[in-house]
Design brief:
single chain; alpha+beta; Aminopeptidase; 2 domains; 12-stranded mixed β-sheet; two-stranded antiparallel ribbon; 9 helices; 14 strands; 30% helix
């Protein structure tokens, strides 16, 4: 039967949710964001159908650093191994390229070897690994008294603190927000400073932003770097500072000295992710 990729439609929801509802033991986020994704005119949302029946999907989000972020790739178990995920990926790259984008990124769980093999088929390469930690329940925090928000007038200082940190180097120069990795370009840092999203304790610096899906709200410490003790004091301040958050996550590149300290203090790893990238050929 013929397979083709096309834009997603409202009628695709029921047939796709019939199998997506069982992904990750019923904890897949797609059912919570489907309607929002369908309404979002700033992203591209696709379905792959076989014989006229929707059996897979993915989405392309365009980030402020000029890259395209691929997410939400799902294929019905009965149709895996037929090249449908490759069709979705190649279609997404073609659409993004037509928009003038030449850098494509995506992430996958560190243990999802099948997905890694599929990603390699469309020539994406691993560029960094990240772990996401959360505090133990009922943890008592010890906020730093001087965790100040950096201002736009401190741009040069903020860039210096960020770029000299080990975490910036280990993580490839990215911060995470809404589960997408964005390059910390000069323009991005300026925007984060304008938002008041960059905080500092001593010589440690962090990007902290709120987020959420549906009714669930979370606080994300999207980048933290600098001396270990200053960095941990900054984490404690930010993790404990948002009283309305349902979840609190700290994103750290693997190899960061802060990971050992977080574990020692009782933080648990919730996720481990691999970041992949492909750049379009020039010319």
């Amino acid at each position: 039967m013929e397979a083709r990729v096309r834009p997603a439609r409202p009628a695709d929801k029921a047939p796709l949710m019939s199998f997506i509802k069982d992904v990750w033991g019923g904890h897949d986020y797609i059912p919570r964001v489907w309607d929002e994704w369908l309404r979002d005119k700033k992203a591209d949302f696709f379905v792959v159908e076989v014989g006229g029946v929707p059996v897979g999907m993915n989405r392309v989000r365009y980030l402020e650093d000029g890259s395209a972020w691929f997410e939400g790739a799902r294929v019905h178990p009965d149709f895996r191994g037929r090249g449908l995920a490759t069709m979705l990926g190649e279609n997404s790259m073609a659409v993004a390229t037509a928009r003038g984008v030449n850098v494509f990124r995506l992430t996958s769980g560190s243990k999802n070897k099948a997905a890694h093999r599929q990603i390699a088929k469309i020539a994406f390469e691993e560029i960094a690994r990240f772990s996401v930690y959360g505090p133990p329940k009922r943890m008592k925090f010890n906020p730093a008294k001087h965790a100040g928000r950096m201002k736009l007038t401190q741009f040069d200082e903020a860039m210096c603190l960020i770029r000299k940190s080990r975490e910036y180097v280990l993580g490839g120069g990215f911060f995470w927000h809404d589960w997408a990795a964005t390059s910390l370009t000069s323009a991005t840092v300026r925007r984060l400073l304008e938002e008041g999203a960059i905080r500092r304790v001593g010589d440690a610096v962090a990007v902290s932003k709120g987020g959420g899906e549906g009714k669930e709200k979370w606080e994300q410490i999207c980048l933290v770097g600098g001396p270990r003790d200053d960095g941990f004091r900054l984490i404690e301040t930010l993790v404990g500072g948002n009283k309305r958050a349902d979840e609190r996550w700290v994103f750290l590149p693997q190899g960061s000295p802060l990971i050992h300290l977080l574990r020692k203090k009782g933080y648990k790893r919730d996720f481990a992710m691999v970041l992949f990238e492909r750049r379009a050929a020039k010319g």
